[in-house]
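Reviewers of the previous submission asked for a worked example of the structure-prediction workflow described in the proposal, so we include one complete record here. The input consisted solely of the amino acid sequence. No template or homolog information was supplied to the procedure at any stage.
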Amino acid sequence: MKITSKELRQKWLSFYEGKGHVNIGAVSLIGDGSTGVMFNVAGMQPLMPYLLGQKHPKGTRLCNIQGCVRTVDIDSVGDPSHFTFFEMMGNWSLGDYFKKEKTAWTFELLTKVFGLDKDKLCSTVFEGNESAPRDNETAELLKGLGIKPEHIFFLPKSDNWWELEGTVGTPCGPDNEWFYPLNPDKANPVFPDDYVEIGNDVYMQYKKTATGYEPLDNKNVDTGFGFDRMLLFLNGLTDGYQTDIFRPVIEGLEKASGKNYSEGGENAKCMRIIADHTRTAVMLIGDSQGVLPSNTGAGYILRRLMRRAIRYCRQLGLSGEAMLGAANTFIDIYGEAYPLLTQKRAYILEEIKKEADKFEATLVQGMKEFDKCVTSIARKNEFMSKSNPDYVKETEINGKQAFRLYDTYGFPLELTEELASEMDLTVDRKGFDAAFEEHREKSRVLAAGQFKGGLESHSENATNYHTATHLLNAALKLVCSSDIQQKGSNINEERLRFDFNFPRKLTEEEVAKVEGLVNEQIKKDVPVVMKEMSLEEAKGQGFVGVFESKYGEKVKTYSIGEFSKEICGGPHAPSTGRLGEFKIVKQENVSAGIKRIKAILK
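From that input alone, the workflow returned the following structure tokens.
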């Protein structure tokens, strides 16, 4: 049968509501911490307290369609069947009905509502082991419904037992999986080669413990059918990106790039990755808990997805802002099922644009740095091979180089690994971890105020704020007095604090002029150029600095065009365009003749 995504939602929910279930709707994609996983990775996950015995306020029969995020298979995204965001159609019995009712209802749904041929259905059940007995009960119920005995297969725990990996104290048990021929018209299809799984019913009879399993007080049923997979299957498709959920986005990418998705190959892969990652970004930013790109936790996963999508936009000849068109389309597609997306449309698009602009500003320079690493390895291999026939070629980017790409250019380690893999190289993860730990130790020192520039971390945001202090210092000299000197600073992820010598607070007009000069340099996207030279040479070229007695014979100088020239220990953004809008939010007195400015980057 042909069916739209809207119709599939309606049919699933209506069927189970007709069996006395209450539609409880979807909850946040972000895990609540109770299961030790960052995102909700299964439709049943938010219901764990109730599956373990707690009373649900809406009763014992529940149903919904729940969004989930899984990134363990991110490297597989780009083929026709992998996604990082997906939805699970679910229904539950909390100590109410069990195997007899559930097998009958799933059979009815598949054959009566979706029109599948009962003679072609196959089903698998648990064969039993030392932890739990063989599930003969489910097998007999299936035969009674009309499933051919030769279409019922007993399989081991690896196939027909459900539990949430990496967790303890969670419900689990044997499951009954349902299969149908991928090509229903094929004569005499052979299981499992010609079949595809379309869903499963989990019979939660046990609780997972640290040492094994123990029976649950109340037996529960957890049904899970993949929404995307079912939509694909019922429409006779083999490419998940050709359903009505993805097709409008793919068509938009085709039009923008001038490339043809149907030709397959690298262009199709790029479009799938952009579409998938953009959908996940929309869902996370538009979530009730509103995840934003960052360098930690869920925000790091989001940033990784978005930056990966941007890189594949560039492979299609598009800028990162191509994500905006895709995001807008997804909001239209999912707006009815997830009304919050429509309410947050402007916010979602703004955050995607901000991240795209940030990454675009450094991507070109970061790719140049990556190419330098690859070229260096190739040259070394070529040189050494000529002089030593037994030389074993290097195939690894070292950890310090990988960390530099992360710290200076905003490349997630996984992006560097992906780029390296395309060049038949690997990345020294242990070396990266060591460099990262060294960075963390420096950050602890920074937090104690013992580092040049007053940074509290070396994150991308803090690096941007540090660069902004150079612009602020130069602007203050132009607007207020050429005698102004930095007297201290403190920088964190959220703001900069800059102390300087001046007898009074700035007037509103002076504040506006300083902001204007800084933002003018940001809009120009001026490169930040570092050169090492002697202290005397730096002074001779007009570079200014702080606490000169602490400098060695050689110093690092940073120039931002002719606007700012400072001696500094770093770290700095590669160009001003990534900083965002500069805004002075507060002025304070520090002591006689010393003033303080606090500012943010929006």
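The longest helix spans residues 345-387. We consider this example representative of the routine output the project will generate in years two and three.
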